[in-house]
## 1
Amino acid sequence: MDDYSLLDLFWTMLWFFLWIMWLFLLFKVITDIFRSHDLSGWGKAGWLILTLVLPYLGVLVYVIVRGKSMSKRDIKEAQDRDAAFKAYVREAAGTSDAGGDAMKKGSHVDDLAKLAELRDRGAITDEEYQRAKTRLLV
């Protein structure tokens, strides 16, 4: 252990870091190969074989040849995920853009809450509250 200098430790850590970074890139490329809709099955198999048999060369060639389309697919997937999340939130909150009962129910609930708040503050009487509530629910 005495002959392992601080510089040797630095080089070991550097090579380990570079190896981990390369593994991340390899997994990213393999994921992109399977996610790509513009490649045929044979194309996917060819790229996969190239990246597994000659990993360093295969990953480097893949990034050079298809790097620009990789970023486009990443952006499209992120936009699709964002749109699906927003649709889920609208559906869960009951404020659908398609109109329908969900929008009406949401606005009625808000209006009833406002009426109840006015009644609780004493701005309207119980009788006025009941009349306004009846009008909203009909």
## 2
Amino acid sequence: MTSDSDDALSWDGDEASTPKDPAADPALPRGWNAVGKGSGDVGRVADDGTVTPADDTDRGLSNAMLLVLGVVGGVYLLYTIGWVVAGLRLRPLASFLVDDFMFLPWFVLAIAAPALWFLASWVLTRGKAAWIRISVLIAGVVLLVPWPFVTVGVIGA
């Protein structure tokens, strides 16, 4: 039992506020990876035995996500080329309907739309689940199809 003088110098719950022992933090040695829920909280054990806390800056993209980004980025690049070719083919026809100062901004915007969609989906889905990022990128593949190029083509009349 504690004396009255010890009780006067402490508050209720002081015992729980002691600092955590760094060795009690979950940590894995080099070469091991934590998976599942809470894997981001697992630190690393250095060669000298010290535990370094976990940080999310060293995480990279998975191989599947890199593959999806490469394929979708290639499709967006082909869409950009398709919009350039289709816009240049439509320019003589469009000059009958609108002046060049009205056609040119929309032509430039159509060319830049795939790159803008890719950049916006990359930035706005940061920190979200991978399936959300992939679904937004696939939605861009569906929405940004260069229809003038698809329907008329390069040599169409």
